[in-house]
Amino acid sequence: MSSVNKINRECPVWEKLLIEVNDAVEHEPDLKEFFTKAILDFSDIESSISYVLANQLQQNGFNLEKTQSIIYNAFISEEHAYEKIITDINTVIDRDPACITYYQPILFFKGFQSLQVYRAANHYWKKGNKATAFYLQSRASQVFDIDIHPAAIIGKGVLMDHATGLVIGETATVGDGCSIFHDVTLGATGSQSGDRHPKVGKNVTISANVSILGNIRIGDNVKIGASSLVLEDLPANCTAVGVPAKIKKQ
Fold first, then answer.
1. Which distant-in-sequence residues (6+ apart) come within 8 Å of 188 by Cβ?
2. What whole-number distance in Å separates Cα of residue 122 and Cα of residue 116?
3. 26, 46, 214, 166: which is closest to 36 by C-alpha?
4. What are the DSSP E strand ranges found in the chain?
5. Cβ(110)–Cβ(146) under 8 Å?
6. What pTM did the predictor assign?
7. Nearest to residue 101, comparing CAs of 160, 11, 21, 12?
8. Looking at per-residue confidence, does 224 or 250 come out higher?
9. Up-side HSE of residue 64: CA atoms within 13 Å toward CB?
C-alpha cells in the first residue's frame, strides 16, 4: 500500500502480532518470505489483512493491488471497522483453544477471513456499490465455502469456528459475541419474500449443522445444539435441541 495510507496509532494486537511473527521467522526461516509479504511489509493491521484477503480472492488476473485497495478503503472508511477487526481477533484468541497466536486468525483461519471480507462487502453494499459488494461476496463464497450476503448485519466479536458450509442470508442479523460453527444456515423457508431471515441476539452459540429458518428471533445467550432445526422464536437464556428444536433448559 502507498505510504500515504499508513495509519499512525498504537495497536497492542498489532504489536503482539509482530513479536510473534518475528519469533516464528527466527525459528522457521523457510517461512520468512511468506510472513514478510503478509505481515512484516506493512505498518498497520488493516493493510496486512487487506493484502492477505486480496491474495486469497484475486481471480482471472484481476490486479491484486486493486482488490487490496478495495478492501483497505472499506476498512479505513467504515465507522468502527478497526474496533470490529480487533474484537474479532481477540474473540478467536479467547474462545478457540486451537488459536495460540494472533497471526493465526489473519493468515490461517478462514472463518475469520470470510468475516472480514463480509465487513468490506457490507461497507460497499451500504454505499450502494452493489457490484463491488457482490464481487467480494462471491469470491469469498468460492474460496472459503462460506456464503454471507453483504446486506446481512453482523455485530463485533463474532467467532466463526471452522465455518465451512456457513450460509447467512440477506436479511439476517447476528448480534455481538456470537459463536457459529460449521454447516450452519441462517436462511429463509422459501415461502417468504422481503424480511425473511433469522434475527439472532447477542452471545448466542449455534452448534454445527444447525438450520435456523425464517424471520424468527433468537434471544440473547441462547445455545442451540448440533444438527437442530429451528423454525420458531427462542426466548433469551435457553438451550434448544432437536428437529424441530425444543427448549430443554431455561
1. 169, 196, 197, 213, 214, 215
2. 10
3. 26
4. 147-148, 153-154, 159-160, 167-168, 173-174, 179-180, 185-187, 199-200, 205-206, 211-213, 217-218, 223-224, 229-230, 239-241, 246-249
5. yes
6. 0.92
7. 21
8. 224
9. 10
